Request: fold
Amino acid sequence: MTDLSSTPGTGKFMSIDALITAQFEQVAQEQNKTLAALQPETMLIESGLDSLCMAIIVARLEDMLGVDPFTAAEDVDFPVTFGDFVKFYENAATK
Amino acid sequence: MRRPSSPGSLWHAVAAAADRSRRSLWGAEASVELAELSERSSLGDGRDALCGRSVLLATVDQLIATLALIELDGVARRIVLCPPDLPPEHIDFVIAVAEIDACVVDRAGPPAHAERVGCVIACYPETRPAALATGDGVPTEWVLLTSGTTGLPKLVAHNFATLTAPIQLGGPLAQPAVWSTFYDIRRYGGLQILLRALLGGGSMVLSSTHEPVGEFLCRAARHGITHVSGTPSHWRRALMSPAARHIDPRYVRLSGEIADQAILDRLTAFFPRAGIAHAFASTEAGVAFEVGDGRAGFPAQLIGQPGAVVEMKVVEGSLRIRSPRTALGYLGGDDAPLAAPDGFVDTGDMVEQRGERCFFVGRMGGIINVGGQKVHPEEVEAVINTHPSVDMVVVRSRRSPITGAIAVADVVLKDGFRPDADAEMLKRDIVAFCRRALPAHKVPGVIRFVPSLDVTGAGKLARR
Reply:
């Protein structure tokens, strides 16, 4: 866990990992999706979330963390697993 | 002094009114009784200098603009009604396209562009005695400005006949009405109300650009307004003001934006003694129809009626209109023609039929493309506006690296809802509320609470 961020509204500090997990859970609930158990090796495509859910998560994380690694990335492989996704944000947030 | 001889001019219409003694135009700073205008002038000797010219009506004050309009229709060749929020960098463009060779200003002083026009005439709310003389009236072109897609305004040409064609005298207009509007009278929506007041035997309370809505409502209440118009955005803002309690209108009119069920219901509850009507009009197409049954949308039977005064058809989803009320054309040659060769004007407003009713769903150019699926911001706003905690909302497109775009919402909460720790709960509630009424791609992915939303000079929600 490389960075700490405050979660708007809660006043608590969460790791990026925990923040992302919470967003996956919340968006899944909002969109009536069944979320797979999130392990680092869980394939994003098998997480139970569709591209609309991912778009919402990316937008909200950008608001919380101030980074959108999908847009900022150049020649970087896009994440395939949940673990990749977390690392993608951790790397972007420490730059 | 020249007076228009043509009965089809604004001055003749005002002068012909049987009883002008108790009729007034009330501005924010001054007022004029209509009876004054038959023997007195607000332009004085300047009116002769404006005869046959193309006049930029560039006053700040709406009352002074109104007085100049009454005196110049049938005298000037062309009058360009310059709204107060026209960006200064667009003035040269307007002067060139409209071949402006004279300018009417108020006592706020000549604007920076006055030198380029040559003839600058000041107009005053204090009328001066003027000799009456009749001249050969010229058919004056009235030019209204609308915001073009390229950023430069479009110059839309009307005349007294096209502008007054929607106005049916008699009926509710027969009673002495005190009209008012949140619109500036240099916009089509405001001009329609001014013409109703002048032609229909009424008085009018004019708004003022920088006047806070609460002060305007108090002023309107003091003059006993009976008929009021504005956009749904104007009305949402007005209902946020405690001063809205002071007015007691008989007729409340909405136009310029989609009137959703939430705003119609709120106005019906707030003004139980008023008839609530929503009209569809555009500067180019003119007034098409008015709906008075308190329900959003309009009867589907209005579309495709052959021989109707206002003919309407829907092509590729957008409403097209042909009537004697449509504008004559655009000034300047670069824009696409205002009307198709068959005379129909494409409004760019998208219509959807559900059963016996048609509904406006949004603007042709305003669609948000969420991963290939279309979202009209207005239909999402119509849902969020019915949430009990919401006063106003704008839905916008936000770029997304995943789906190209997603819909996001900026929400103004009703007074009393001050979310702090509960903000996240309330956002989730609004999302769930949308989810029950809309497919997933139309539900805003991000909701922000904002203290207020911008409304453009035309009274519409600022979408960019």
User: Anything to note?
Assistant: DSSP finds four helices and two strands in chain A. The longest helix of chain A spans residues 16-30. Residues 1-11 of chain A have pLDDT under 50 and may be disordered.
